[in-house]
Design goal:
single chain, alpha/beta, TIM Barrel, 47% helix
C-alpha cells in the first residue's frame, strides 16, 4: 500500500470512532524498530501510525533534523509500498515557536499529521500558538492533520520536564473551547499518564476524564479523536478502559526503546562466548589474529541481533493492535 496522507488518516480515525477501537501510534527512534512495526501491523491487518520528533530526526540526519526527516520519509515510503495496510506518519511534539521546522515538515510532504505542542503555555497562549500552526498548515494547502494538546502530562518530552505536581487533568469545557477556537483535528488530553517509564499501578489514570471530554466534544458536534500520550506505562485493562472512553490514539515510545535494547541484550548475553574473549586473550585491534580464540561472525554481525529486534517488535505490534482492536480493521488491505 502506498504511504498515505491526512485525508486518508482522517477516514481511518473516523472508522475507529465508529468501530470503537484505537491505535498505538509508535515513535520510531531506530530503523529496525520501524521494520518490526511494519511487519507486525501488516501481519495482523492493522493500519499503522508511526511518529518521529525533531530530536529523532536530528539523529537520523547526523545533527540536521530536516535531512533526517527526509531520510526517514524516503525509507518509510519505500517500505510501506510493500505492505497491505495503510501507513501514516505523525511528526510528534513540534514546538509552535519553531516555525522553521514546522514549515519544513509541512513542505516535505512526509507527514500525514503534525502534533504542535504548546501545552506548557497558559490556555490563551496555547490557543493562539495552536491556531497559528493550524493556519500555517491550511495556507500550505498540504494534506496534513493537526494534533494539539490541552493539559500537561508528567515526565520529559521534547526537552521539557513536567513534574507530577505540575501535571493536571484536561477540563471538558475547556477542551470544547480549545477545539472550537483552534480548529485542531485531534486533541491530546491529560488523563494521568506519564512520559517515560512508569508502572501502571502507580499512575492515577482517569478514563472518566477521557469520557467526559469525548462526550462534551460530541455534544457540541466536534468529532475530534482523542489522544493519550505516555501510554507505555498503562496496563492492558487501562488501555481497554480508555478505548471504551473514546480514546483513539495512544502514543508509545519507551516500550519500543526497551524492547529494542532488551532483545539485543538477551541475544548478546546468550552468545557471549562467541563475542567476548576469555580472560587473558587480547588482540581486539587485530581481531585476535595472534590468539587461539576468535569471535564468530554469525553472532557479532549487526544484522543478526537486528533481526531479533525486528521479530520481537513485530510480535509486540501484533499484541498491541489486538489489544486496542485495530487488528483486522485496515481500510486499505488488498482484497
Amino acid at each position: 500500500m502506498p504511504y498515505c496522507h491526512g485525508n486518508d488518516l482522517e477516514r481511518v480515525y473516523r472508522h475507529a470512532r465508529d468501530g470503537e477501537y484505537g491505535f498505538f501510534a509508535s515513535n520510531v527512534v531506530q530503523f529496525d524498530i520501524l521494520v518490526g512495526l511494519l511487519r507486525g501491523a501488516d501481519r495482523v491487518g492493522s493500519d499503522l501510525v508511526v511518529q518521529i520528533n525533531e530530536e529523532t530526526a536530528g539523529f537520523y540526519g547526523d545533527g540536521d533534523p530536516q535531512a533526517g526527516l527526509r531520510a526517514f520519509g524516503s525509507y518509510l515510503r519505500e517500505l510501506a509500498a510493500s505492505k497491505e495496510v495503510g501507513v501514516f506518519c505523525n511528526i510528534d511534539h513540534v514546538r509552535p515557536d519553531d516555525e522553521e521546522f514546522l514549515r519544513a515538515c509541512i513542505q516535505s510532504g512526509i507527514p500525514s499529521s503534525v502534533m504542535v505542542d504548546a501545552s506548557a503555555e497558559p490556555f490563551e497562549a496555547n490557543v493562539e500558538r495552536t491556531r497559528r500552526a493550524v493556519d500555517l498548515v491550511s495556507a500550505s494547502e498540504r494534506d496534513v492533520l493537526v494534533e494539539a494538546e490541552l493539559g500537561r502530562v508528567a515526565g520529559e518530552e521534547g526537552g521539557v520536564e513536567t513534574s507530577a505536581d505540575d501535571a493536571f487533568y484536561t477540563d471538558p469545557e475547556r477542551a470544547v473551547e480549545f477545539v472550537d477556537r483552534t480548529g485542531c483535528d485531534l486533541l491530546a488530553i491529560s488523563v494521568g499518564t506519564q512520559h517515560g517509564v512508569a508502572s501502571g499501578r502507580e499512575l492515577d489514570v482517569r478514563p472518566d476524564v477521557a469520557r467526559a471530554v469525548d462526550d462534551a466534544l460530541r455534544d457540541r458536534g466536534l468529532e475530534v479523536p482523542l489522544v493519550v500520550h505516555g501510554s507505555s506505562g498503562l496496563t492492558d485493562e487501562q488501555v481497554r478502559a480508555f478505548v471504551d472512553a473514546g480514546v483513539r490514539k495512544f502514543n508509545t515510545n519507551t516500550r519500543y526503546q526497551y524492547e529494542y535494547t532488551r532483545t539485543a541484550f538477551d541475544y548478546y548475553r546468550d552468545h557471549e562466548d562467541s563475542i567476548v574473549p576469555p580472560d587473558g586473550v587480547e588482540g581486539r585491534d587485530t581481531l585476535y589474529s595472534d590468539a587461539d580464540w576468535s569471535p564468530e561472525k554469525a553472532h557479532f554481525h549487526p544484522g543478526v541481533a537486528a533481526e531479533e529486534v525486528r521479530t520481537r517488535l513485530a510480535d509486540v505490534m501484533t499484541e498491541l493492535a489486538e489489544l486496542t482492536g485495530s487488528a483486522g480493521q485496515s481500510r486499505y488491505a488488498r482484497s
